[in-house]
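Appendix B. Chain record.
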Amino acid sequence: MRNSRKVYARPDLCTGCRSCEIACAVEHSASKELLSALFESPPPRYRMDVQAVNGVKLPVNCRHCTEPDCLFACKSGAISKDLKTGEVQINLAKCVGCWMCVMVCPFGAVSPDMDRAKATKCDLCTGSASGPACVQSCPTKALIYGNADEFNAWRQP
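Structure tokens predicted for this chain:
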């Protein structure tokens, strides 16, 4: 799975502007437009969360783990892993909102959507021709969508 593509972050480039959060919420809205998304009910949820710890900003999102705890904890079978791409996805039709995946994620990347009674996490904007919205919107290019080798080459000074 070394060639699986994920969203990687460089905290040294992140300013904490939260453009990634906004772009994510808009991408997952019904309208796909910022102004319209503000008035949707229930409101669209972002799947990327910018955290600040000791002055360092870090976008937190699903790591699409090799052995995802959320998958093993999901008793309804709503979470699956694509063996070719390495993507871990939630089938919202199967999700019963038990939050076991939320409790076991070591990264805090799975969150409860209380409005819909479903779990949410980064889905890598599956279906979007331009890739993850968070990556496209980052003004400092602190996010990259690629595999581990691409990320390692990118983060070298």
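Further analysis of this model is presented in Appendix C.
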